[in-house]
Specification:
The protein is of the alpha/beta class. The chain has 2 domains: 154 residues, NAD(P)-binding Rossmann-like Domain (Rossmann fold), CATH 3.40.50.720; 245 residues, NAD(P)-binding Rossmann-like Domain (Rossmann fold, 3-Layer(aba) Sandwich), CATH 3.40.50.720. Helix content is 29%, strand content 16%. It contains 12 helices and 18 strands. The strands form 3 sheets. It has an 8-stranded mixed beta sheet with strand order 3-2-1-4-5-6-17-18. Strands 8-9-7-12-13-16-14-15 form an 8-stranded mixed beta sheet. Helix 1 runs parallel beside helix 2. The chain is globular, with a radius of gyration of 23 Å. The two termini are 40 Å apart.
């Protein structure tokens, strides 16, 4: 079927085999078609969590390509060869840090005089993100880390541990079903306790944003008590501790780093002068059973878990720390042994600190790392609905804007204009710094 007028396109996701999310659900498409008079074209997809038939019932068209669409919405990066001259693309581009692997893609968009709007940059007046999957990364990341804990403990000989009742997030039909499974494991712990030699079982969370909130939401389904990092250091006498309680600890910036000169930690100074700070997190690592890494990080800041530290830790025998859920998933980043983001279909590896080698799966000597880099796609239906709810108010304006107008007079909502990285192939004023990476 040929479409003679402009329309909004919804891309089929092709970067990852298991990427099943969509930025616009059939229910949202139906509203846009019936209430806003927009035309929606969904690129046919055999794996999208909402099948083609649901979009057809909503009144959308299904096509093999999106050539008839001037504005195209996706989730992840788009192959360079897929861009078309002068079109507007809305997706997570991952270019604002000058990421080397996406500079060829950005160059192609510039050559094609494209417009680029990045969800990550859609923020309010206080620079708070308005559209994100982050909470679902935390939700799925915690589910996967508890599943990983069960499997790793099984490798250690704990064949009936409560966490074995939890599956990888992708195997649940909904978030509610996953939560029910975690709650069941929690009741098992409350009624039967944990093995004495695993006490105290502790979960540490770095960060306190949307990702961390999602991870904590799952952890709170277990019988748990929140304590401070200072209290964590004092949890030593197993015999005096209840065996049916898990301890949660939230780590903020002041727990992760300290000034090299020994002066007091000050948050504004930390962000302004990260080179003056060094790791202060290592004192807590021996006291954690699971580490959930949920914070923002870039190369200016100290790492929180280094390969050198892990080598020293494992040189003293098997430590308490069993699983690292690296939700931030920065390769060679804040958790240095995360050498790559893992795929949903092959989600974990064991890093051997002595040899420095990772082995995919649950077996081997070392620390188990769960580092799936598209975690929200393990809960694709719930994540897509929540994301589309947040995006919906902006879609009509994005679709109907005349992008041939000068940047200064573009009739876009302020939050969307802030997120416009490319306008007719040129970096907009707020993003001209990216030139240095090109």
């Amino acid at each position: 079927m040929q479409i003679m007028c402009a329309a909004i396109g919804i891309r089929h996701e092709d970067k990852y085999l298991m990427e099943r999310r969509t930025p616009i659900t059939p229910a949202h498409a139906k509203q846009l078609i019936e209430n806003e008079g927009l035309k929606i074209v969904a690129q046919t997809s055999p794996k999208r969590v909402f099948p083609d038939t649901e979009y057809l019932k909503a009144g959308a068209l299904i096509e093999k390509d999106l050539k008839a669409c001037d504005v195209i919405f996706g989730v992840k990066e788009i192959p360079a060869e897929a861009f078309e001259e002068g079109k507007t693309y809305v997706f997570f581009s991952h270019v604002i840090k000058g990421q080397p692997y996406n500079m060829p893609m950005l160059k192609k968009m510039m050559e094609k005089a494209c417009n680029l709007i990045d969800y990550e940059c859609i923020v309010d007046d206080q620079d708070k993100r308005l559209i994100f999957f982050g909470k679902y990364a935390g939700l799925a990341g915690m589910i996967n880390s508890l599943w990983s804990m069960g499997q790793r403990l099984k490798e250690y000989g704990y064949h009936d541990n409560a966490f074995l009742q939890i599956k990888q997030a992708q195997h649940y039909a909904s978030l509610m079903e996953a939560k029910d499974a975690v709650s069941t494991a929690g009741r098992h712990i409350a009624e039967n306790g944990l093995p004495q030699d695993l006490l105290p079982l502790t979960i540490g969370f770095t960060g306190y944003g949307n990702v961390s909130a999602g991870a904590q939401e799952i952890a709170n389904l277990l019988p748990s008590k929140e304590i401070t990092p200072e209290q964590l250091l004092k949890l030593k006498d197993r015999k005096q501790l209840p065996n049916n309680l898990i301890y949660k600890v939230i780590f903020k910036e002041e727990h992760l780093s300290k000034r090299r000169d020994g002066s007091d930690f000050e948050l504004p100074d930390y962000y302004a002068n990260p080179d003056l700070y060094e790791n202060d997190f290592e004192q807590y690592i021996p006291h954690l059973s699971i580490l959930m890494n949920c914070m923002y990080w870039d190369t200016r800041y100290p790492r929180i878990v280094t390969k050198e530290y892990l080598k020293d830790l494992y040189g003293k025998g098997r430590p308490k720390l069993t699983v690292i859920g690296d939700v931030t998933c920065d390769p060679d980043g804040s958790v240095e042994c995360t050498h790559k983001g893992t795929a949903i279909e092959d989600p974990v590896f064991v890093y051997d600190p002595i040899t420095g080698n990772p082995t995919m799966g649950f077996k081997g000597h070392g620390i188990l790392v769960m580092a799936v880099d598209i975690l929200p796609s393990e809960l694709p239906r719930d994540a897509s609905i929540t994301f589309a709810d947040a995006l919906f108010p902006f879609i009509k304006a994005i679709a109907e804007t005349d992008y041939s107008a000068p940047y200064e007079t573009l009739n876009l909502p302020a939050a969307i204009k802030k997120a416009l990285i490319l306008h007719m192939g040129k970096l907009t004023p707020g993003y001209e710094y990216i030139n240095q990476y090109l």
